[in-house]
Amino acid sequence: VWIGLAMAMRRQYIQSFRGAVARREFDRDDLRTSLRDPQAVAALEGALTSASPGEVAYALALLRSVPRADLPEGIADLLEHEAAEVRQRAMALVLEADLEGLKDRVRALLDESGETGRLAAHYLHRHGGDDVLAEALAHGGPRRVNVMEYLSRLAPNQTVPDLVPRQELDAVLQRLRVELVFE
């Protein structure tokens, strides 16, 4: 009887967890405990295939609390999702988890404006994509802006790729912002 009751409670817990993900309602204290449970991580993995971009983005945000080893496969596939918010959250998770071997997939995200493009530039710099960054600087447009903004945000003690002299970053970045306004 106790075993049956425990199994029933477990099923109810997982159903409640899935419902909370779908509704995007979570208590942060409960979240830390919940994401240690493999079935809870599996529920989040299931949410990654949802038809709702908001639910997928929310699941990605929750997965940031999961250890890298427990991350579901398929996160990289979301870099090509149709929703911009999902691509941005997937890029942030890929960068934060330091997933390797995604240089070609991330290259396409350099064209995206805003945070996604800057995160892509960061990933490429970290994973030996300075050749891609140099190419982006030569082409101009959003790619160039994203690379320049990423480079300009590096702390003074961080190594800047030998693509643009550090002292020129601020002036070039200001000029690029003005160019984009008039395009």
What does the model show?
- There is one protein chain.
- The protein has 183 residues and is an all-alpha fold.
- It has helices at 2-23, 28-34, 38-47, 53-63, 84-97, 103-107, 115-126, 130-139, 141-152, 169-182.
- Helix 3 (38-47) runs antiparallel to helix 4 and helix 7 (115-126) crosses helix 9 (141-152).
- The mean pLDDT is 78.
Topology of this protein?
Layout: H1 2-23, H2 28-34, H3 38-47, H4 53-63, H5 84-97, H6 103-107, H7 115-126, H8 130-139, H9 141-152, H10 169-182
Helix pairs in contact: 1-3, 3-4, 4-5, 5-7, 7-9, 8-9, 9-10
Annotation keywords:
10 helices, 183 residues
Total count of strands:
0
- Low-confidence segments, given as residue ranges, are none
Going by helix content, strand content and strand pairing, the class is mainly alpha
Radius of gyration: 20 Å
Sketch the topology as an H/E string, one letter per element. Answer: HHHHHHHHHH
Q: Quickly count the helices.
A: 10
User: Which percent bin holds the helix content?
Assistant: 55-70%
Shape: elongated
Largest sheet descriptor:
none
Question: Which percent band covers the strand fraction?
Answer: under 5%
